[in-house]
């Protein structure tokens, strides 16, 4: 593993500043930029603290307030998103082997049957930087390499969630440690570089930008994150130094489900004790840490839109913004975490902007991650597939307001992990499936 500079200042940030690089013509098909955050909530109002997301996406695009992930857990949700298939059909149901993670994605044959493969078949250049899947590690990154990316620079376990000690792996090169550099700033540099490469190619492109924020910070102590016996510490996410002073008085929204006086929920959740003042105060600070960590993501959104304008391709580019799953902090007396079927965990942001997409409008269509691959293929004029579990979301014009179905399939296997100082394993075994 190669070691690079210990500060973000050591990275080359000078992308796309020369007028000779500006595009003069539009590509043959629409470009697509896809922001995929990690564990970002909708119901805790995190979007209210992202002014550039509001400026470029909420005010200029279509907001889906009834969009759902189908599994409230990172890897199964991401595989669902990129394949258009439900988790019970991908058979990727966990974050690590034997039931999930990158090795399971590969063993199920999905490395040859997911979105970038189909996009390249349609003539697209494809790029990805950030987190792809869990259990994609410094040991198995080339076994095999993720297929069908023109350019890639992936975060690798066990350093994926270490905000100040991330490791990245570009194309077919060996992993590189960025110890001391802030992970979202590293991502920003890589994303801008791939955007410049995409413009230079003079072909339509698909670019995924996948920060780990606002996921908790995870430090692994020996062994590998794919080892169920490995020791690791889960703490609040870490912000860039420039954002540490923000939101000092902000608190978790005190909704009716927040630390209720009477038990709520069902089964083991209904048996949880009410949180004491010290835990509520800790959770408020945990919440503030999440908002601070999202500020660098917000800046990245602004940078990308400015570059799309600089390259004169914004009017021919669709931009998506979503999260792999949601998050709860204090609702139903739960400590910080996800993995539950409550709306805090499964109802996630989805905003899109692009040609003929209504601006500043909220749609009430019921949609899910299973629908996103069919949607993207429809936007570029590519054929859909008979084995998709989802259907294309209507984004354009008046069709975006049309009624769809009223249900989403939610699934879950495994345990629920509480995060932070008061974290513990809450339940083991199949927690169940439901419809919402």
For this entry, give a set of tags.
single chain, 436 residues, alpha/beta, two-stranded parallel ribbon, 19 strands, 23% helix, disordered N terminus, disordered C terminus
Task: Summarize the structure in words.
With 436 residues, this protein is α/β, with parallel strands linked by helices. It contains 9 helices and 19 strands. The protein has helices at 51-58, 74-83, 87-90, 101-107, 115-121, 183-201, 277-310, 343-346, 372-379; strands at 2-3, 31-37, 62-64, 67-68, 125-130, 151-155, 165-170, 176-179, 205-210, 217-221, 231-235, 317-323, 350-353, 361-363, 367-368, 409-410, 416-417, 425-427, 434-435. Strands 1-8-7-6-5-9-2-12-13-3-14 form an 11-stranded mixed sheet, sandwiched between helices. The chain has a two-stranded parallel sheet with strand order 4-15. The longest helix has 34 residues, at 277-310.
């Amino acid at each position: 593993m190669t070691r690079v500079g210990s500060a973000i200042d050591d990275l080359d940030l000078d992308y796309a500043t020369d007028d000779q690089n500006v595009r003069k013509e539009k590509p043959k098909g629409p470009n697509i930029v896809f922001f995929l955050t990690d564990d970002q909530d909708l119901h805790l109002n995190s979007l209210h603290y992202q002014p550039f997301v509001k400026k470029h996406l909420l005010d200029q695009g279509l907001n889906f307030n009834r969009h759902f992930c189908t599994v409230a857990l990172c890897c199964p949700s991401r595989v669902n998103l990129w394949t258009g298939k439900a988790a019970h059909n991908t058979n990727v149901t966990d974050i690590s082997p034997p039931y999930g993670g990158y090795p399971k994605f590969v063993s199920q044959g999905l490395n040859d049957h997911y979105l970038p493969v189909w996009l390249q078949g349609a003539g697209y250049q494809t790029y990805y930087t950030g987190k792809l899947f869990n259990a994609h590690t410094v040991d198995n990154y080339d076994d095999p390499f993720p297929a069908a990316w023109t350019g890639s620079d992936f975060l690798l376990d066990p350093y994926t969630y270490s905000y100040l000690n991330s490791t990245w792996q570009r194309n077919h090169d060996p992993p590189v440690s960025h110890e001391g550099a802030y992970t979202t700033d590293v991502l920003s540099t890589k994303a801008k570089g791939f955007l410049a490469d995409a413009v230079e190619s003079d072909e339509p492109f698909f670019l995924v930008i996948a920060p780990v924020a606002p996921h908790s910070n995870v430090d692994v102590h020996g062994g590998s994150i794919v080892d169920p016996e490995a020791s690791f510490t889960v703490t609040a996410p870490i912000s860039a130094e420039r954002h540490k002073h923000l939101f000092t008085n902000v608190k978790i929204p005190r909704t009716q489900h927040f630390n209720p006086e009477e038990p709520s929920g069902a089964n083991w959740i209904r048996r949880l004790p009410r949180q004491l003042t010290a835990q509520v105060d800790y959770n408020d600070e945990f919440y503030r840490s999440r908002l601070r960590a999202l500020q660098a993501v917000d800046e990245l959104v602004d940078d990308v839109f400015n570059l799309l304008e600089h390259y004169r391709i914004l009017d021919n580019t669709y931009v998506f913004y979503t999260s792999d799953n949601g998050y709860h902090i204090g609702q139903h007396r739960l400590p910080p975490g996800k993995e539950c079927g409550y709306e805090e965990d499964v109802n996630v942001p989805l905003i899109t902007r692009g040609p003929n997409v209504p601006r500043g409008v909220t749609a009430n269509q019921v949609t899910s991650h299973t629908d996103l691959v069919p949607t993207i293929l429809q936007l570029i004029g590519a054929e859909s597939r008979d084995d998709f579990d989802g259907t294309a979301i209507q984004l354009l014009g008046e069709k975006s307001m049309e009624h769809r179905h009223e249900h989403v399939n939610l699934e879950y296997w495994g345990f629920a992990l509480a995060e932070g100082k008061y974290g513990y394993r809450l339940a083991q075994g199949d927690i169940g499936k439901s419809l919402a």
